[in-house]
Design goal:
2 copies of one chain form a homodimer. Chain A is α+β, with helices and mostly antiparallel strands. Chain A is 32% helix and 24% strand.
C-alpha cells in the first residue's frame, strides 16, 4: 500500500491567469504528485490546490510552488475578501494512508525551515504542528492579516517559529500546519448582502452554538453579486455535509433568503458523499461496497 | 487494464438462510470474482447478487451458483410478490470495462447452453441476447410467471431458446440476457396499500408517460407492512436517481403518502451518486476527480 499525504496549499492570488498556471505547472512538475483539484476565486483573491502523493514528492512539489508564489505575488497591492497574512498563506499537511499525523508535523517543520531560510519568509506553525498552544488555531495566527504582520511584527507575540524576525516585503508570512481531513464547503446565498452571510455564519458555527467542529465566516462575493457563507467542516464524520447545508438553509430562511448554490473545495472522502446520498434518498443501507468503481 | 463483466443473478429464494448462504459461498468460491453486494427480500421472496470479475471467472461462478439454485429451490411451493418464471429467474451480463456488449451476449448464450443441457432447465434469451425481437423485453418473456411455463409451455410462443421443450419440474425456466448498466431502486411508502404503490408506478414509468427508461411496478411488502414502488432505471445517465426519487414523492403526495425509505440494489456507478449530491447540495461543479479515493 502506497503511503499518501495530502496538502492543500492556499495562495493569495485568485485573478492572474499566468500566476495560476505557473502554480499548477509547479505542482505537476514532480513525478508521483497528483493535482486532484484546483480552484481560484477572484473575490476571495485566493487559489486553493489539492495535491496527493508520497511524503517526499509532496514536499518537493510544495517547495517549487512556494517559490513561484513568493516571487510572483505581492501582498502590498492585494485586496481580497478572505483573511490572509501571506502570498503563500496557508499550507496544511494531512495524513491519508500509511502515514501518521506526527509525520505530517515533521513535514510541516521541514517545509517551514526551508521557506524561512531559503526564501526568507517568516513561518508560523499551526494546529498539530504548533510549537505553542496559542498558535494552534489558524484564525488566531492570522488575526490582523498581512497589515499587522508587516507593520507590527516585532511584537513578541508575532515572532515567527522559523525564518527572519520581520515580514517578507512582498510575501508577508506563511502558516504551515498539520491536521486531520476537513471539508471546505462554501454556500452562496440568493442575496448580495454580506451582513446576512455573516449573521448566518455566526449562528451555524460551533463558536456561536452551531454544529460541532464547524467554522464559518461570511464573505462578500462582489464579482459574483452574491454573499457567501464560507465554511470548514473539521469533524466531517460527525458533522455531515447535508446537516451543514440544511442548517444554513434554515437560518437563511429567516431573512427570506435561500441557497443559490454551493461548492466543495478540494478533495472529499467518498464516505461523506455517500452519507449525503443516504440522507436525501432516505436510503440508509447504502454501502461503500455498492459503489462499482471501488472494485476496480 | 483488467477486463470486467458484471452479472446480477436473481434467485427466487429470499427466506431460507441456508440456501442464501450456499449461493453466496458458490459465488465466492471462484478466484477473481468479487461479490460486491447481495440482498434478500422475504416479501419479494427473491435474492439478488452482484458479481464482478473477468468474463471466464464470472461464467464459472454463475455455473456453480445456478447449480445450487436449481437443486435447492422449488417453485411449486413458492409464493412471492415479485414476477418470476424460475428458481434461477434472471441472469443479465453487463459489460463494464474492456468488454463489449457482444461479448456479454456470447457469455449469455454459453451459460444458456450449459444450463439447458447440463441442468435440463429451458432458457430464454432476453434484451441484447434475444434471438427474436419479441423476447427482448423481460416482462414479456416472464408474463404468466412460473405457472404459465409449467402448465402451458408447449405453445410455440413459449418454446425456449435453449434446453428442453418443457419446464424443469421444480426450477421452471430461466431468462438469461445481456444489457447495459441499470440501477435497481426500490422506494417504500408510508402506506401499506399496494394499490397506491401500483398507481404511482403506473404514472412514473415511461410506459405511463413518466420518465424515460424507467420501469416500475407496485409491490405489497407484507412482512414489512409497507407498499413499495420497485423500479429499474435503464438509462441512468439521462434519468437521474434524484429525479426518480422526487417524482415518486410528488405522485405519492396525491394520496397524502410520503417516502418512508429507499434501497439501492446491487452496485451503482459513482457518477450517479455524485449527480445526486450535485442536485441536493446545489453543488453543480462537483467533479469525479474531487473524490479522494479515486486517486489511490
Amino acid at each position: 500500500m502506497k503511503r499518501i499525504v495530502e496538502s492543500i496549499p492556499n495562495f493569495s492570488e485568485g485573478r492572474d491567469p499566468d500566476v495560476l498556471e505557473a502554480l499548477r505547472r509547479a505542482f505537476r512538475s514532480v513525478e508521483g504528485v497528483a493535482l486532484a483539484d484546483d480552484s481560484a476565486d477572484p473575490d476571495h483573491h485566493r487559489s486553493v490546490y489539492t495535491i496527493l502523493g508520497e511524503p517526499e514528492a509532496v514536499l518537493e512539489a510544495l517547495c517549487k510552488a512556494v517559490r513561484v508564489g513568493v516571487e510572483r505575488i505581492d501582498l502590498n497591492h492585494h485586496q481580497g475578501s478572505h483573511p490572509r497574512i501571506g502570498a503563500v498563506d496557508v499550507i496544511p499537511f494531512v495524513p491519508l494512508q500509511g502515514v501518521g499525523l506526527e509525520e505530517c508535523v515533521a513535514l510541516a517543520h521541514r517545509l517551514g525551515e526551508w521557506m524561512g531560510g531559503e526564501l526568507q519568509v517568516p513561518v508560523y506553525y499551526y494546529e498539530e504542528a504548533a510549537l505553542v498552544p496559542e498558535r494552534r488555531n489558524l484564525a488566531d495566527v492570522r488575526r490582523g492579516g498581512f497589515e499587522a504582520i508587516r507593520d507590527n511584527m516585532l511584537a513578541d507575540v508575532r515572532q515567527p517559529d522559523a525564518g527572519p524576525g520581520r515580514a517578507h516585503p512582498s510575501a508577508g508570512a506563511a502558516c504551515i500546519g498539520a491536521r486531520g481531513p476537513l471539508i471546505a464547503f462554501n454556500i452562496n446565498l440568493t442575496t448580495n448582502n454580506p451582513e446576512i452571510a455573516r449573521a448566518i455564519a455566526t449562528r451555524v458555527r460551533e463558536k456561536g452554538g452551531g454544529l460541532k467542529g464547524l467554522k464559518a465566516i461570511g464573505v462578500d462575493l462582489k464579482a459574483k453579486g452574491s454573499a457567501q457563507v464560507s465554511m470548514n467542516i473539521t469533524l466531517p464524520r460527525e458533522t455531515s455535509l447535508y446537516r451543514v447545508f440544511e442548517l444554513v438553509r434554515l437560518e437563511a430562511a429567516r431573512y427570506g433568503v435561500d441557497v443559490a448554490e454551493s461548492e466543495l473545495i478540494g478533495a472529499v472522502s467518498q464516505e461523506f458523499l455517500l452519507e449525503t446520498v443516504r440522507y436525501y434518498l432516505r436510503c440508509h443501507d447504502l454501502k461503500e461496497s455498492q459503489v462499482l468503481e471501488n472494485w476496480f
